[in-house]
Amino acid sequence: QVQLVESGGGLVQPGGSLRLSCVASGNILRINAMGWYRQAPGKQRELVAAITNSSTTNYANYAGFVKGRFTISRDNAKNTVYLQMNSLKPEDTAVYYCNADLVLVTGVRRRDYWGQGTQGTVSS
Q1: Which of 24, 46, 73, 87 is the most buried (most CB within 10 A)?
Q2: In what order do the strands lie in the sheet with 18-26?
Q3: CA atoms lying within 13 Å on the CB side of residue 8
């Protein structure tokens, strides 16, 4: 089947940076888009950023709270999406999840694949 594996979380000081990675593997025919969501205690999971994976398009969508601090990018050849997070604030503390909109080798489209999550903590 399909697996999404996140990495790059950790503990950083306010103003610091984290670079998250998510690698998709399995019986994948095509990835249409990948994105990052986050969930803090007591809050619903929310979109952080998403990006299309087409070789002919380069469309990225960001949540308003990013305010130019985060950048999403991709490496289609490696089925990998990245989230570069700079100027981090304590309120950015959350579990960050990777999501994929993809087509399996069987031709079935799936949009409900999620990674296990990686914890990002911003604290002095």
Answers
A1: 24
A2: 2-7, 18-26, 80-85, 70-75
A3: 20
Residues whose CB falls within 8 Å of the CB of residue 27, separated by 6 or more in sequence, listed in order: 1, 2, 104, 105, 106
Structure-block tokens of residue 47: 């979109």
68 vs 75: CA distance, rounded Å: 21
- Using 50, 70 and 90 to split pLDDT, how confident is the model at 1? confident
Q: Which amino acid is at 39?
A: Q
Summarize pLDDT for 82-110 with one digit per residue, the tens: 999 999 999 999 999 999 999 999 999 99
